[in-house]
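Hi support team,

I'm opening this ticket because the web form for multi-chain structure prediction keeps timing out on my end. I have pasted the exact lines I submitted so you can reproduce it. The total is 225 residues across two entries, so I didn't expect it to be a heavy job. Is there a limit I'm missing, or should I split the entries? Thanks in advance, R.K.
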Amino acid sequence: SQKIEQNSEALNIQEGKTATLTCNYTNYSPAYLQWYRQDPGRGPVFLLLIRENEKEKRKERLKVTFDTTLKQSLFHITASQPADSATYLCALNTGGFKTIFGAGTRLFVKA
Amino acid sequence: DSGVTQTPKHLITATGQRVTLRCSPRSGDLSVYWYQQSLDQGLQFLIQYYNGEERAKGNILERFSAQQFPDLHSELNLSSLELGDSALYFCASSGVIAGGSEQFFGPGTRLTVL
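Hello R.K., no limit was hit. The queue was backed up. Here is the completed structure from your submission:
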């Protein structure tokens, strides 16, 4: 069956370090992969989109990689800050109308 | 502020009842998506409309239905409510019909079924 897996355990890191979050998928051939940030009780906010023919995308302190052979995306936040503490969701789209979200990984950045 | 509005913000009702959740997409967006988020399930795709027509269905229960009106706002109707329907319901919009672009999420409606 199709599955998207993100670390269910929270990630705790020290301010200033790089946070790396993982998204693995099985039985999908996604055309697009997206990362969203969600704060408690609020709607997800789009961060980055990467296409299947792109290896890497950057936006300010954020970097996403997409390895279709490993079926994995890595999401990096460099020089992390306490304000980066949130849940980060990975989402896949196979080019059709449906976007499937992972359960998310909670990130805590300590000052 | 994403530009997507949802009403009401909170809704408390009893089992067996019916409720309607409303969503107004960002100006110019033709696609509207509905999602359910409960603590143990994550964000679950329910249904998508594009310019008034249903385009994709996820794990939407038969007790749930939705529509998108000519002015592009959308409503999600939940009937014969059960305790397990308690969740956050999000609406999102995008400017394209398919999934290759970002979705803008509203603030959500928190539904509590007692």
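A quick check on our side: The first strand of chain A starts at residue 3 and ends at 6. Let us know if the file doesn't open in your viewer.
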